[in-house]
Amino acid sequence: MFTDFERDDDAGTGVFFSHFVTAVGIYVYTNEGDRPVTVADIAAAFNTTPELAREAVEDHPWLFVHVDSDDPSRQVVESDGE
């Protein structure tokens, strides 16, 4: 499971959290369709924790989590805009 992101973009090299946030946005936009994307979907796609997936969605400027449950498979990710 991958959870070790660099948080400081000036740190040099590595996988930065800001890049993960962008990748999550692309994943959500390209997988919107008949079934909504959930936090669990994102966690599975990126082999990370639901908590980190939720944090990335919350950090994205146009995404948000519609939370009706504590279950990540029921936490729908929605986009603000088109």
Roughly what percent helix?
Answer: 25-40%
The CATH superfamily is: Winged helix-like DNA-binding domain superfamily/Winged helix DNA-binding domain
Secondary-structure content class: alpha+beta
Rg: 13 Å
Order of helices and strands: HHHEE
Query: For the residues shown, what is the average pLDDT?
Result: 85
Taking pLDDT < 50 over at least 5 consecutive residues as the criterion, the unreliable ranges are none
Our count of domains comes out at: 1
CATH topology: Arc Repressor Mutant, subunit A
Helix count, DSSP H or I runs of 4 or more residues: 3
Tell me, what's the shape? globular
Number of DSSP strands?
2
Supply the CATH class.
Mainly Alpha
Amino-to-carboxy terminus distance:
32 Å
Task: Tell me the β content.
Answer: 5-15%
Q: Profile the largest sheet.
A: 2 strands, antiparallel
What's the arrangement of strands in the largest beta sheet?
Answer: 1-2
At CATH's second level, what is the architecture? Orthogonal Bundle
Would you kindly provide a written description of the structure presented here, covering whatever features stand out?
This protein is α+β, with helices and mostly antiparallel strands and 82 residues long. It has a single domain (17-79), classed as Winged helix-like DNA-binding domain superfamily/Winged helix DNA-binding domain (Arc Repressor Mutant, subunit A, Orthogonal Bundle), CATH 1.10.10. Helices cover 39% and strands 10% of the residues. The longest helix has 15 residues, at 17-31. The model has no long low-confidence stretch (mean pLDDT 85).
